[in-house]
What we know:
single chain, 6 helices, extended
Amino acid sequence: xxxxxxxxxxxxxxxxxxxxxxxxxxxxxxxxxxxxxxxxxxxxxxxxxxxxxxxxxxxxxxxxxxxxxxxxxxxxxxxxxxxxxxxxxxxxxxxxxxxxxxxxxxxxxxxxxxxxxxxxxxxxxxxxxxxxxxxxxxxxx
Length: 141
C-alpha cells in the first residue's frame, strides 16, 4: 500500500531565534569548506573509478561490492541520465513557478492546484526511485 503525500505551500514561515553558536560549536556541527572540497574531490574520483569498472567489466562479473558502491551515484554514472534528470528538475520548478506567476497575476491563491502540479511533475522521481530500488534488490539479494 502506497501512501499519498502532497506538497503544501505556505505564505508564512516560522522563525525560531536561538542563541548564537560558539566558534567551536560551529566547527563541530558543520563541514568546513576544506572538508566539503575533499568530499567533492573524493566523490568525483569514486564516480570515475566506478565508471571505469562498469565499462570494463561484463555485467555478470560485477560484484555486490561494486553495486553497493553505485548507490547514490546513479544520476552521475551516465551523462544521459544526468542530463534528462536535470532537465526534468528544471521543468518541475518551471511548472510550479509558472503556476504561481499565473495565480499572482489573477490575484488568486490555490494551494491545491500548486500541490497537484508538483505531485504530477514529481511522479517520474517516484517511478525512477522504485526502478532503482527494484534493480538493486534483484541484483544484490
